């Protein structure tokens, strides 16, 4: 009889200890999820559909010898959110001017290749980032002059995900 009572007490203690461990782990997991949820929401992309901002078509003389080649390029920016559209519109003249200068430095040979178009899209994205502090990892436009002290990389560069313009899309692309 004593053996049965001891076994029952042992079973009750084991079940109680197991239940305590189970509940402790559940509470710890719930607390961890509560801490992670705000961080995940901050890194999560926008929940709604993407916002697009089309630019007027640009007709540009290309840098080909003889200067007889032109390109007509239609560009649309994919933006972070609707508020970014208003921000970008404020800087549109500066961005458009930079894009025109950028495209005018290209040759028709570069513009007709897929790799050239992809590089142009990346260059335009960098140009669109300039008014907002540039992008991390952006290369300096000018190499340092001989005898000059090495310049430190600018610490005010912005991560690409934080910029208003997320992607550059071509809506038309004609080289003549």
Brief sketch in words of this structure:
The protein contains five helices and four strands, in the order H-E-E-E-H-H-H-H-E. By secondary structure, it is an alpha+beta fold.
CATH superfamily of the domain at 51-133 and 160-175: Band 7 domain
Task: Note poorly predicted spans.
Answer: 140-155
Total number of helices: 5
Q: What's the CATH class of the domain at 51-133 and 160-175, please?
A: Alpha Beta
CATH topology of the domain at 51-133 and 160-175: Tetrahydropterin Synthase, Chain A
The N- to C-terminal Cα distance equals: 102 Å
How many runs of DSSP E, i.e. beta strands?
4
How big is the Rg?
Answer: 29 Å
CATH architecture term of the domain at 51-133 and 160-175:
2-Layer Sandwich
> What can be said about the biggest beta sheet?
4 strands, antiparallel
Considering DSSP H and I runs of 4 or more, what fraction of the residues is helical? 40-55%
Question: Tell me, what's the shape?
Answer: rod-shaped
What is the percentage of strand-forming residues?
Answer: 15-25%
The arrangement of helices and strands along the chain is HEEEHHHHE
Structural class: alpha+beta
Can you give the mean pLDDT?
A: 82
Task: Explain this structure.
This protein has 176 residues and is of the alpha+beta class. It is 48% helix and 16% strand. It is built from five helices and four strands. It has helices spanning 2-43, 82-90, 92-104, 108-112, 114-129; strands spanning 51-54, 58-61, 70-79, 165-175. Strands 1, 2, 3 and 4 form a four-stranded antiparallel beta sheet that branches. Helix 3 packs antiparallel against helix 5. The longest helix is centred in the N-terminal third of the chain and has 42 residues, at 2-43. It starts with a helix and ends with a strand.
